[in-house]
Amino acid sequence: MTAVLEISGLRKTYRGRKGVRNALDGFDMVVEAGQVHGFLGPNGSGKTTTLRTLLGLIKPNEGRMSILGREVPKHLPEVAREVGAIVESPQFFGNFTAETTLSLLADAGGVNRNRVYSVLDLVGLRDRSKERVKTYSLGMKQRLAVASALLKEPKLLILDEPANGLDPGGIREMRTLMRDLSAAGMTVLLSSHILGEIQLICDSVTIISAGKRVTSGSVAEVLARHKSGAVKVRLEPGVDMMGAAQILRAAGAAVTLDTDHFTVGNASNPAQITKLLAQQEIYVTELTPVAADLEDVFLELTGTAPVEGQNRQVDETAMSAAGKGGWGQ
To answer: Which of 4, 84, 199, 274 could pair with 149 as two cysteines, CB 3.0-4.6 Å apart?
Structure first.
């Protein structure tokens, strides 16, 4: 497949009161043509810095970037027409209508005004297009932002949190739109914190933490490389699950109770579960590995999983010593 976007060795540092901070520390990313590619990372990990650098809004310290085979920012003016982007929260003039806003943007970009009505229809604003933007909800403003990014019919669409403010129906509509655009040949780079949506919509992902790439590949490949380490345990009918859970917890297991089963979240050696319980004449009828989802992988790789009794601070990504190893080894 042809790479539409390539980033290699990207570095960006900032100087502040506490010294030099590496916003990007040798970051790499490749996005193939026709894919919906998820770009994931915790707050402060470098996602927005990467996108702003890619679009020529920030100057990097080191690294190489290319869009559609042309090096940027050197050739950005030549490829800009082929790129549509929303980075952070776009601002619009509140007294203008959506139709006026997009018409002005179309004129500025040399786009036929007929395209305005097409994109308004695509994002579901056709019937509200003559209302002032200041009367719009956050979700409607986000729809308008996506419409503005689609005006040029770009080959590469970069969206930073496009589902921000959308209700569940709107999120599903946005998901369908992204898939339709990809099916029509557009490449979409999608940054979002809604990991369930990323898993549903994206062909591939890149996860960034502390300015570095921690994993990348197809969604299936990334999930296959990272097992959850959790197992579902079901006992014989009538057995005291609470008592069984207490036995395992006393041995260091992380147990979560459900109505008819419990889950051991850190079972590196599941056989230890049956052994400990059998010693107390409690017998297991089911021991099933729990498949990892993208949220599990994200929390593991970025070190941002909640730790009981601790309040994790922004930028605090190091995993606690207790979370590094499995139980029952």
So the answer is: 84
